[in-house]
From TrEMBL:
This is Large ribosomal subunit protein uL14m. PANTHER family: 39S RIBOSOMAL PROTEIN L14, MITOCHONDRIAL (PTHR21037), LARGE RIBOSOMAL SUBUNIT PROTEIN UL14M (PTHR21037:SF3). It comes from Diploptera punctata. One of its GO terms (molecular function) is structural constituent of ribosome. Residues 1-27 form the signal peptide.
Length: 139
């Protein structure tokens, strides 16, 4: 599937939609086990109106026969200005109220994620500040 990007008039082939494979980048037990087995989680729902995920969006993933929620912290697709492009589609697993399941994030996350998640804290009532606190490096 492809879409036309409104800013640069080019075709984007990679975006987070249903059944996209993701890479867990935190140190949660379920995430480490799934990545070690070679069975990465798959996106089964994107929580926004377009149903296409970008950096900072909340997704529902199927991992080891369970359903878990996660936040996208890195996406392969061509990004707008000020958002870095990553080599893989990265996700951090969270519980229902926004608390991360792991205690550390292994990869750098984009700086723009701070402003995006703070806006979502106000709107939805979920607390994503802990996710930003466990990140060690920002790009």
């Amino acid at each position: 599937s492809f879409i036309f990007h409104k800013d640069c008039k080019c075709i984007l082939f990679c975006h987070i939609i249903l059944l996209t494979r993701l890479r867990v980048v935190d140190n949660s037990e379920i995430g480490k086990a799934a990545m070690a087995e070679g069975k990465p989680p798959k996106c089964i729902h994107v929580y926004n109106k377009k149903r296409v995920g970008t950096v900072g969006d909340k997704v529902l993933v199927a991992i080891k026969g369970q359903k878990k929620k996660g936040i996208l912290v890195g996406v392969k697709q061509n990004q707008p200005t000020m958002i870095p492009k990553f080599d893989s589609n990265n996700v951090v697993l969270i519980d229902d109220n926004g608390t991360p399941l792991g205690t550390r994030i292994h990869v750098p996350i984009p700086q723009i994620l701070r402003t995006k998640l703070k806006e979502k804290n106000v709107v939805k009532g979920a607390d994503f500040t802990k996710l930003l606190a466990i990140a060690t490096r920002f790009v």
